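Researcher: I'm comparing several assemblies side by side, and this is the next one on my list. It has 421 residues spread over two chains. Same procedure as the others: predict the full complex and return the structure.
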Amino acid sequence: MSAELKCWQDFPPGGIAFGATARQVETGLWRSMRPVLDAVRCVSCLRCWVQCPDASIITDSDARVSGVDFFFCKGCGLCAKVCPAGAIVMRPEAEFLNEPCGAVQGTSPEGR
Amino acid sequence: MSAVNLRELTRRDNPLCEGHRMCPGCGAPTALRQAFMGIESPVVVTGATGCMEVSTTVYPYSAWRVPFMHVAFENAGAAISGVEAAHRALRRRGMFRDGIKFVAFGGDGGTYDIGLQSLSGALERGHDITYICYNNQGYMNTGAQRSGATPRSASATTSPAGAKLPGKLQKQKNLTEIAAAHGIPYVAQTTLHNPTDVIAKVKRAVETPGAAFVNILVPCPLFWKIDPADQTRICRLAADSRFWPVYEVICGEYKLSYEPKKPLPIEEFLRPQGRYAHLFRAYAERADLIKEAQSDVDSDWERLKSRCG
């Protein structure tokens, strides 16, 4: 082994993770119950949006709830519980076997 | 307190993005997302070791859209102090612009117990920071051990309810009062019962010059043994049973933000939670411990009311 000591600048930076890269991680795979949004009943009060731990409620440019991002939704069912209009119901994931994994209900967020 | 417009907020990217690996229905990401909704300025975040730090920064991914730094369990307060002081020094030399906010967060383990001295130092030195404690009343990241925030009679893995002992014997400490005793300009305590309350309190905390501390009670579905979907309901019960009073201390002046019109008995808050299941066993109900919990809540509430003047 060479006795030559390296300066700290010679080492590559360690442990830097770039911002918002977690958006590549499909946490939706954890889901066993799927929230299904009834767009007719939804009053866009945004209670589901503000309470969702996984930021999986999609809103459009008018701040109206337009869908659920199943790429990230872990299926906790919080949105269905806080909905004052009963516009979200939780359905077993087994009913959606024919749909592609990580499908998005409503419009897809940009930049993924 | 300025009104909170959720419609406006949907147009802003939250510093905490999707794809973090917190459990389904966890209260901590909800609390921090809501907290960051109250911050409009660019923000630098540090976190104490805990669920939130571990699950948002699983290498090589990061769930932060903002500069985020983690140092160790016990020094989120010291780390954010250093970041703030460095920014101040660089700003004096014209190398940084004004208006950057500094936020540290920690769980109750990293705030009530392990990080208390560094937090106390940061508050005492009066750095222009906001410290947010997401308090799920135990060490959840390592498997539901008791902490200084675990309430009396709760069953944790290091204070389990069994034949000899009925869960934790000691009362939780009141960190919000400890923070207020530092004489800092803004201290608040809230829970997830009402998102606008969390957003408005954090907004006020970051806009206050000097150190600010916000203590947010969040449920942990695994430790509290509740349905993950019940997060909001449990938090409402905590506020309505006066278990977790929602108040703020502005320059030493106590102010209640939410007073339940009809306070619920503490039983309503304890019964839905599996960590108190040993109090409600058929034919072995521990009415004495439920009564003790009620008297704890009542005496704390009386003391708080007398301070609110």
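Model: For your comparison table: DSSP finds two helices and four strands in chain A.
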